[in-house]
Each structure stands twice: as C-alpha cells, then as structure tokens.
Amino acid sequence: MTIEEPATTTGGRRLAIVFAVVFVLLSGFAFVWGGIVTAGVRERAVIADRQLRTTAWRMLCVASATGEWPTELGTTAAVACESLPAGTGGWPTTPAQACPEGLEPWDDRWMVVLSLDPKGIGAPRLSAGGKATGLGTLEAVNGWIEAFHQAHFAGKTAPTAP
To answer: Whole-prediction pTM value?
Structure first.
C-alpha cells in the first residue's frame, strides 16, 4: 500500500514559496526605499542647520548694531559683521563659531521661520518650519538669541524693530 500526496499539498508548497519570494523582494524594496528617504532627510537637515546658524548670526549682528531684533528675516540678508562682543559667552563671537561650514547667502526660500514674542518683550525664536534639523541645532541657535537678549534687552520693552 502506497500513500500518495494529495495535489493540494504540492500546490500549497508552491504558493508558500511564491509568497516567501514576494515577501523577501518587497522587504528588500522597503529597506532600500527607507535608506533613500533617510538620506534625503539627513541632507535637508544639514541645509536647515546652516540656514538656522547663518540666520541666528545675522540676527545677533542686527541686534548688536541697532539695539533691536529684526522682525523679518529678509532684513538680515545684507548684514555682515566680523565679530560680536563676547559678553557672557552664551553666543558665538565670530561667524566661524556660528557656522563652521561658512555662512550661507540669503535666499527667501529658506526653511527658517522667525517667531516673535507677542508681547514684544521676549527674545525671538527660530525654527525650521517643521523640517528636520541636526540634534541640538534649534536649542543652540535659540540659546544664542536668548543669551544675547538677556544680556542686552532684559527689562526693556519692545526690543523688536517696528
């Protein structure tokens, strides 16, 4: 007496192999696609970091020269200063300290967003408009602005240009 395998067993085996092959191919595709997306986000984060650092440096230069924070980022486009007073050391004193890779030329399509204190008393804040940034970049640049604000504008009202 011989036992024959039913036809459904070989068909089921083929289906399982096809399913496994498709699963492996789709997993490989997802892995590669994830790597491409991650690389793109990291590249944009590097760009956003340079834009944030450049903007923060120029804002510090404007505040140092005029005694007021700029209310629009475009007004910082032509600002150039070689150094700032050291003060408490909470902000960079040279462009190289602010942005070691070099300052970026201004472009109105930048990812940087300026938020002003609605009461006109606090320091302005920078963000990347929801885009990715490097670890600690937002905290660093906003820390520079806050430290400069505390050293030069603490207790004063309306430290922003009209």
So the answer is: 0.75
